[in-house]
Amino acid sequence: xxxxxxxxxxxxxxxxxxxAALILVGYKENEGMxxxxxxxxxxxxxxxxxxxxxxxxxxxxxxxxxxxxWVKVYDDxxxxxxxxxxxxxxxxxxxxGCIIQLEVFTPSEKTILRHxxxxxxxxxxxxxxxxxxxxxxxxxxxxxxxxxxxxxxILKEQGSGTLLVIREDLEEKLGGAFxxxxxxxxxxFE
Length: 190
Description:
Order of helices and strands: EHEEEEEEEEHEEHEHEH
Strand order of the largest sheet: 2-5-9-8-7-3-4
Number of helices: 5
Distance between the termini: 28 Å
């Protein structure tokens, strides 16, 4: 369920500048450490809404910069903030509007999960598929969801286990859920 950035999240101070800009230094997949300028419309103190992957980003905001794993924010005086997440997306709007979105997955992890989802949803109806996570010994299910990203988030947080794609069929046909796909944590996220 999507959340609204103004109602469900708080603003945080991210720096001030007499040249209407902050410096972002962080890691980008396939590029390594990079620095970027985050321009604003006026000299001032700046705040940003810090949101997660469930936030709905309004269309008027444009994506300015994308980082993976970490980013540091510098103003005229030095280091102000550091953010750590799988993906860090920085959006700007108007003169002062800023949203920093912290997501669990890196861009490559999101690509892998989307590929798994698309591959099986093309062959089977979406409503028949469930994504689940088991412990390493296959004895305990941690989640059963129609959202692969929710299952992937739990798998990444627990740091081990197996992602399953399950087809729910009538019990008299298969005797319960039928596993289409199983992939261990290290093959997906490491």
